[in-house]
Amino acid sequence: MMNLDLFGDEAGTQDLAPGARLLRGFALDAAPALLDDVAAVQAQAPLRRMVTPGGLTMNVAMTNCGGLGWVSDARGYRYQATDPLSGEHWPALPGTFAALAHDAAEAAGYTGFAPDACLVNRYEPGTKLSLHQDRDEQDYGQPIVSVSLGLPAVFQFGGLKRSDRPARVPLVHGDVVVWGGPARLRFHGVLPLAEGTHPLLGRQRINLTFRKAG
Ligand code: MD3
Ligand code: FE
User: Fold this and answer.
1) Architecture of domain 4-211
2) pLDDT, tens digit, 9 for 90 and up, residues 161-174
3) Is-above-0.85 flag for pTM?
4) CA nearest ligand 1 atom 6, residue
5) If you measure from the C-alpha of residue 200 to the centroid of ligand 1, how many angstroms do you get, rounded to a whole number?
6) Alpha-helical regions (H) of 26-146
7) Closest Cα to atom 4 of ligand 1
8) Which residue CA neighbors atom 13 of ligand 1 most closely?
9) What is the Å distance from ligand 2's center to 133 Cα?
10) Per-residue confidence (pLDDT) for residue 11, from 0 to 100
């Protein structure tokens, strides 16, 4: 069928743009185990809404696991080894997380991806993430792997300038996107989450982003 040519060489794999590959349902089988580990991470390092350097409280609630975690406060955005709430190291990166991130990166053509940071983003209906670039990592040659769990979201995928009009990409439970190469510094965001209830997560969307930050 000619339509299948729109999707890469494997059913469910789609190039959103050069360097940005969508792996539909790649995390579906692993999702229950991933969610158990998300719960364990949250128990040790609670979700919290961080404050931007400009003094605004972020809409998305966040926590981290891995050797480095992303934080924002009045001093700026950065990665650090400890949770500012507890002063303790972030929880270790669960083996399920590391394996999924590695395998997804490989499926997108990046061999040997070994993330040292996993940012856990929690959305509820109405929560949004404004257009931004991810620029706090050391090496933009490293890809970012993102995993969508729970309620669906509409992802905004822009260009290299904030003013480039973003495309809208629906992301559902189990979808994985690998962002690298020329897509690595593109502006992106998430539109306000629609009301809904997911069988595994209720009124939430959890997004995991894996990075080699340091
Ligand atoms: C495109 N998170 O944590 S994941 C973020 O759904 C973030 O929680 C969103 O943006 C979320 O920084 C989107 C998809 C994503 C992540 C990183 C990217 C898309 C990207 C980096 C470059 C280009
Ligand atoms: Fe981002």
Assistant:
1) Sandwich (2.60)
2) 999 999 999 999 99
3) yes
4) 207
5) 22
6) 31-44, 95-107
7) 146
8) 189
9) 6
10) 66
Domain assignments of the chain as residue spans, ordered by start: 4-211
- Ligand nearest to the CA of residue 129, numbered in listed order: 1
Residue 6 has a pLDDT of 52
Residues with CB under 6 A from ligand 1: 119, 121, 129, 134, 144, 146, 177, 179, 183-184, 186, 188, 190, 207, 209
pLDDT at 1: 40
| 3-state DSSP assignment of residue 176 | strand
Q: Residue 12: its pLDDT value, please?
A: 79
Q: How far, in Å, CA of 62 to CA of 55, rounded?
A: 17
Q: Whole-angstrom Cα distance, residue 45 to residue 62?
A: 9
Of 35, 20, 24, 3, nearest in space to 198 by CA: 35
1 CA → ligand 1 middle, Å: 32
pLDDT at 5: 47
List C-alpha distances in Å: 173 to 89, 109, 113, 188, 190: 29, 23, 23, 19, 15
Q: 188 C-alpha vs ligand 2 centroid, how far in Å?
A: 6
Cα 29 from Cα 22, distance rounded (Å): 17
With beta carbons less than 8 A apart as the criterion, state whether 121 and 171 touch: no
* pLDDT < 50: residue spans in the chain: 1-5
